[in-house]
Amino acid sequence: MSPFPPNHASTPDEQILLDVLQEQHHCLEQVTELLKTEHNAIIKHDMEQMGHILDTKLPLLSQLDQYDKQRQQFFQESTGLPYHDGDFSRYIKEQSSAQIQTIWGLITGQLPECKTQNEINGRIISMQQKNTEQVLFILTGQSNSNTQTYSHLGQTRPQKSNALYTSV
Questions:
Q1: 65: how many CB neighbours lie within 10 A of its CB?
Q2: pLDDT per position as a tens digit, 35-58
Q3: Percent of the chain with pLDDT over 90
Q4: What single DSSP character describes residue 101?
Q5: Most buried in the list 95, 109, 115, 138, measured by CB within 10 Å?
């Protein structure tokens, strides 16, 4: 027996949930496309485009958060239960129309792709920042506290900086 209240097909509440999920899906599609565009901008070192993407991405992420809160609130009000992702998915499967089930399937299928692309972009940016820092350390003759060498006894010691480029 399901812990959720019986489904009343095509209720106004169901329409509210459908609207929220459709908006969430549309917003998630936009974020996914932006992340792909961002990836290309990162690879090309196109800072201007990355700035435009960030200006577009931040409001979309805020909207996604709002839709997520609306969805959670809908679940809590409809069931009287605290929100948990697994319970919501089960609620959708057991209590919602095929249309809502389909859109929820699209959302849950797209989230891992979005997360993976965001992680890839973050790793590339992090690697580029480390490379830039290393070049700056070399060019300015400053010691990079992360740069270490090993002695003949296998002990670590800071690598001495080479001030060759500071006099250029």
A1: 11
A2: 999 999 999 999 999 999 999 999
A3: 64
A4: H
A5: 95
> What does the alpha-carbon distance between residue 23 and residue 5 come to, in Å, rounded to a whole number?
25
Question: Which are the contacts of 162, defined by CB distance < 8 A and separation ≥ 6?
Answer: 138, 141
For residues 65 and 60, what is the distance between their CA atoms, to the nearest angstrom?
9
156: left (phi over 0), alpha (psi -120 to 50) or beta: beta
pLDDT greater than 50 at residue 116: yes
Residue type, 149: T
Query: Domains in the chain, ordered, with CATH?
Result: 12-125 (1.20.58.300)
Average confidence (pLDDT) over 149-166: 54
CA distance 92 to 106: 13
Q: How many other C-beta atoms can be found within 10 angstroms of the C-beta atom of residue 73?
A: 12
Tokens of 37: 């565009």
Contact (Cβ atoms closer than 8 angstroms) between residue 145 and residue 164: no
